[in-house]
Specification:
single chain, alpha+beta, Phosphorylase Kinase, domain 1, Transferase(Phosphotransferase), domain 1, 2 domains, seven-stranded mixed β-sheet, two-stranded antiparallel sheet, 10 helices
Length: 289
């Protein structure tokens, strides 16, 4: 567990370049910026190091959002959720707070990139390490649920990989407290292509929504495609009404897929929540058999 901190700006250290990006070689909150890894819609992601050369990821809320109560609250909430988690398959949070009024989080550096990039490259390691990847993602998500949260945005972009291909779940900005009973979400949030049918249709949700998103991610990782696609949201909604009809078994694309893995993923993808796995712990159990 780490505590939220506020870091005062170091005198004489300028750290912004003209386009508001942290410049390489400058210092932010005591860490030296090595390079920007990603420019996101809500935050910039940098590779940084400390005085001993240890590398971390620095996530900084975009400056034009610093006075947005909603964005600041969402960023802070994601840090607070992550601060309560401690699992090898969840990205580690070392520090979070403010530096010169700018919200930031210091995170573990996963050197293997994210699962989305591996899928797009059709990386053969996704096949050779499939059981390890599936089990790691399932164990990480089970831990999130055990700690009282739903991720609500589980997708390949939010699965980082270590150098030895250990999956690590990240980005908890949209997480919500795990309800004791299914509840309707106040707003539709998350990435549409990975939402569960009950989310799309405004029905009550619980951890089984994350389980469905896990199933979509697992299917895409193994088959290189999502189980259901559409040119528009309207087409996706129409297909989701008959999801099981459009869903092809994994062996249609992967003839050598182990039957146990296929059964697990297809049960995660049941449109009827009552036929889906009731908990990620059971997904972990079946992947281990």
């Amino acid at each position: 567990m780490v505590a939220s901190i506020s870091v005062a700006k170091r005198r004489g250290v300028g750290y912004r370049c003209r386009n508001d990006m942290l410049a390489n070689g400058t210092t932010f909150a005591g860490y030296t910026v090595l390079e920007r890894l990603l420019h996101g819609g809500m935050a910039d992601i940098y590779l940084v190091c400390d005085s001993n050369g240890h590398q971390f990821v620095l996530r900084v809320l975009l400056s034009h959002l610093r006075f947005s109560w909603r964005s600041s609250r969402r960023f802070r909430w994601g840090c607070e959720v992550l601060n309560r988690l401690n699992h090898p398959n969840v990205i580690r949070l070392f520090q979070y707070g403010k530096h010169d009024g700018q919200r930031f989080a210091l995170l573990e550096y996963a050197t293997g990139g994210n699962l989305r990039d591996r899928i797009l490259r059709n990386d053969p390691v996704l096949a050779t390490e499939r059981r390890r990847l599936l089990l790691g993602m399932a164990m990480g998500l089970a831990h999130v649920h055990e700690k009282g949260f739903l991720h609500m945005d589980f997708k390949p972009e939010n699965v980082l990989l270590s150098g030895n291909m250990e999956p690590k779940i990240t980005d908890f900005d949209l997480a919500i407290p795990r309800p004791s009973q299914p509840e309707r979400a106040k707003v539709l949030s998350g990435t549409f292509a990975y939402l569960a049918p009950e989310q799309i249709f405004g029905e009550p949700v619980d951890e089984r929504a994350d389980i469905f998103s896990f199933g979509i991610t697992a299917y895409e990782m193994l088959c290189g495609r999502k189980p259901v696609t559409g040119e528009s949201r309207a087409e996706m909604v129409q297909k989701y009404t008959q999801f099981n009809t459009h869903l092809k078994p994994l062996h249609a694309y992967l003839p050598d897929i182990p039957p146990t893995i296929e059964r697990v993923i297809l049960r995660c993808l049941e449109k009827d929540v009552n036929r889906r796995y009731p908990s990620m712990a059971l997904v972990v159990r079946d992947l281990q058999t």
